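Bench notes, afternoon.
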Amino acid sequence: MKRFIVLAAAAWCGCLISCVRVSALADYVYEVEPAFVQSNAASVARNVVLMIGDGMGAEHVWAAWLSNKGKLNITNLPVTGFSITTSASHAITDSAAGGTAIACGCKAINKQVGLDAAGNPQDSLAVQMRRAGKATGLVVTKTITDATPAAFYAHCKSRYNTAVIAESLVEAGFDVVIGGGAGDFTEEQKERLKKNTQLFELAAEKHCPPASERGGWLPERVKMALQTLEKDPDGFFLMVEGSRIDTSAHVNDLPETVRETLDFDRAVGAVLEWMKAHPDTLLVVTADHQTGGLALPGGNKEKGEVQGKFTTFDHSGVAVPVYAAGPGAERFTGVQENTTLAPKIRAAAGMEP
């Protein structure tokens, strides 16, 4: 168990604002992959890895960067941009609409998954890639039926209609399914998933444990997913979600938020290591929204310390970062709507609009 120092908690304008300093011990700091160098890269991405830090704003990234003494795998990616996260119904999106925008390329109404603003079902990137003959997979740290992963396979007016979402996953026919949420499936559904997937794991009845208790579970599962999916001669699509960044930020727990973001960054490092032997792979790292209204009033990179203040227990409306590497990465620079990520990924993979 890592140790953190909590200095203070304060109230401001009637809204609780946590002010904490996180001090990372030496054994918590880790090395990162060298800056990404794209050599002899294919003009078309045969493989696509889309990594979503749920609730991960730029502030979360830089809090982790300070805590890891100025080093992150994410910040070594050569292309950066920003994604506008407003939904069809609200200035501040939820994960259902945010996930749908990324997965399907359309603005959606808060709480709805896989539907456009008019309520029409939309095929996700995962479904489109599977239709094109590619292997497909999902790896998440909360329930596999949670809003963001659900947007990649389900069409539902309520993100909380777990029964419909669970059956949609069973019918999707993905090759890799890893996450929590065993309690959301019947025994018959689990048997069908085991039979129809190459790699299947529901690691918890509900959400997977927090990063402070998971150890290296997420990076290891990402490696396992890559090793499974790489066998497909037509390539693959893999979505990885660092789901519990959002959970920690919702309760304004800065130490756990930093742990979750660093855990997600280690998973990015696992993908970058794998990409050394697979230069025909596009990696895109982004978020569905920012959670907690986090601000960073201080810190010390040399000591691995970060001071942070949360301004809300909910999501905020700021744009979130986009990072990319590999064939087609240059498409993701600048400020862009979250709905443009899916068509840019399709174009990088040589797929028709």
